[in-house]
Amino acid sequence: MSVESILLDFQVTPTMDESVYIRDVASVATCVADSLRQDCMQQGCISSGYSYASIYSGPKDLLFTIKHYFREGLITLSLEYFKITKDDGLLYDHEAVERMCRLVKRNLDAARGTAIPSIKRCQVRTPYLRTSDDRIVEYGWTRLLFSQRSAYQLVEIYGTMDFGNCLVLDGFINLAESDLAYTRNLMCHGKYDYKDKEVLILGGGDGALLYELLKEKPKFVTMVDIDEVVIDACKEHMRSACGDVMDKYKGENYEIIVDDAFKYLAKYAEEKKTFDVIFGDLTDIPIHAEGSTWEFVKAVIKSSLRLLPVGGKYFTHCIGVNAPQAIYNFEKMVQSLGVPVEVAQTQDHVPSFMEKWVWFQVTRLEGEITEEVNDSIVEKEAEPQVPEVSSGTIDKEGKVEEKKVNGEEKKDKGEEKKVNGDEKKVNGDEKKVNGDAKKDDKKERASPDKKEEKKAGAKDLKDKLETPKGLTKEKSNVDKKAKPTKK
């Protein structure tokens, strides 16, 4: 059961002649009735200085709208109807839609005609997800294998013919059984030697990364994921991706911890524990460099980099190649976290993502760790070295010559008090400066936004174009008596 929408577009010669564009709309309606072999009833029309539209109804709750943008010569045909079963419908397949498109194009003598396959709406499980840059992709779900809302997200696993079983979290594809390319790109398979390495995985609840890493004979792998629902679902329905590695939470050289990653990052920092490799297998990088998700990612990476020794690696996935601004923002952010690093990236196509993906490899370099202040980096202040002050002078032989004049001694002590007084004054200024720094830290940090193209509205267009004769700005014929369009 679904509601189906079918969209067709046509390019015709622009016209300002009212009789021509009204005739074109009627012609399209007749073609629809002929294609369906059913009578369709006109329910009303709406006209403006830019377009003319007519609304029709037909069998099986069909409603369709024909809109003619006569100044540009564009006609859109939008049909919507209720479909109970797969075999029940006015247009059974896309070939029927294409036949209708060809009929309309021929009758209009249109320069171009295109038809989009039917969009299935109002379903319990939508087949439509989106790419990293918000394009629509349609999945051929064969069945729903698992669905449960955890304390953190909606966890679903679908079966497909294309990608095997797919893990979907909050409406985003996370991993499929077909996606070994994702896991191997994340771990730089064949380019990095994990033998005898200490590894930390942040996230990774699908188990695929842990499964592949253990084949590389690391010293020990710790995986921290907050959502046990994901772990339970994947070890039952994604066995080809995770194997049996999550059947028990502790093995000879690995441990799975169900908890908050931040909690353990803080714990390891307090223990001064380091890892040779840390994986960020958590959320995707958001499009905009702002908001709670961006701050979450930033905090995770900042804490992780401080657990790496010189030469240590932080490996993470990022986002699709069609979101270049997000990729740029991410790299810039990593380099601004106060830890000297070298940043590299790789790209590859992930089958179930239906797009090319980006991974980052961050290497810890030698150098002082610095701190962020108002989006700029300042070095940590070193402890001031106070020079030792001698009460005497040094002669040529290196011996200290004591001061013998009492008056001069008292004078020197007086000068020392004066210096101490100036020092207090300096300390007071330092407190004032530190106070200003704290005040500045509370200010909201500016984030680069994606530039938006300025679009001209209808008001701007109205000033440039002359309203055609015989048409008011809003002329409605909805109240007219319905007229049938016969096949």
Query: Can you name the CATH architecture of the largest domain?
Result: 3-Layer(aba) Sandwich
**Low-pLDDT sequence parts:** 373-483
Shape: elongated
Q: From the structure provided, what is the oligomeric state, counting identical versus distinct chains?
A: single chain
Give me the CATH fold name of the largest domain. Answer: Rossmann fold
How many structural domains in the coordinates? 3
Distance between the termini: 28 Å
Tell me the CATH superfamily of the largest domain. Vaccinia Virus protein VP39
Q: Strand count, sense and closure of the main sheet?
A: 8 strands, antiparallel
Strand percentage, roughly? 25-35%
- The total strand number stands at 25
Discrete helix count? 11
Radius of gyration from CA coordinates? 35 Å
CATH class bucket of the largest domain: Alpha Beta
Summing up helix and strand content along with how strands pair, one would put the structural category as: alpha+beta
Mean pLDDT across the residues is 81
Percent of residues in helical segments? Answer: 25-40%
What does this structure look like?
By secondary structure, this protein is an alpha+beta fold. The protein has 3 domains: 2-123, 2-Layer Sandwich (Double Stranded RNA Binding Domain); 129-174, Spermidine synthase, tetramerisation domain (Spermidine Synthase, Chain: A, domain 2); 178-378, 3-Layer(aba) Sandwich (Rossmann fold), CATH 3.40.50. 29% of the residues lie in helices and 31% in strands. It contains 11 helices and 25 strands. Helix 8 (291-305) links the parallel strand 16 and strand 17 (313-320). Helix 1 runs antiparallel to helix 2 (94-108).
